[in-house]
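Submission sheet (multi-component)
Chains listed below:
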Amino acid sequence: KNEVEQSPQNLTAQEGEFITINCSYSVGISALHWLQQHPGGGIVSLFMLSSGKKKHGRLIATINIQEKHSSLHITASHPRDSAVYICGGQTSGSRLTFGEGTQLTVNP
Amino acid sequence: EAGVTQFPSHSVIEKGQTVTLRCDPISGHDNLYWYRRVMGKEIKFLLHFVKESKQDESGMPNNRFLAERTGGTYSTLKVQPAELEDSGVYFCASSQVRQYTQYFGPGTRLTVL
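Outcome: structure written.
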């Protein structure tokens, strides 16, 4: 069992829908990262959380330390949001342990 | 401010050949990380440099992989000899000392035929 689990693995939505991607972790972490990987392969760091909630544009990330759970929400989704979304827990030292990613497809 | 850069963006080599990947971190970032994503699997940690020293290399798969960071600036990751299972996307990330946020490079897609 992976130390960081994401769900769903694949998600298809219609443009405008509200999207939620979940991340659960089974180890102690110092911070939780959400990353975005576009079809070209490059990775962009979206959020780094150690508590509470962060918002950037249409993206919102929350974390519940007690429940070891984080969510990434996308409001008013758009086809350009189509990408793989990856959560990563910062564990021992400063290395990141990642989930397998969620492939999001937003159809027009 | 320039971000993390990686070279090359793509590399296609034959089994048994040698490939060297390069990562230039953000200027002033002492922490440098290498990660790898093999097809269908999660991104996995390879190693962590603090300046020129290897802080943690527990993720290196075997001795065919050699990472260096001479002078504490850019880093190279050499695979010699490459095997089919080494195919994947190799990412580099950097961060400042005692900062959690890691800035990722665009990755190098390695294909071993």
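Remark: The interface with chain B takes residues 2, 4, 30-31, 33, 35, 40-45, 48, 50, 86, 88, 90, 93-101 of chain A (CB under 8 Å).
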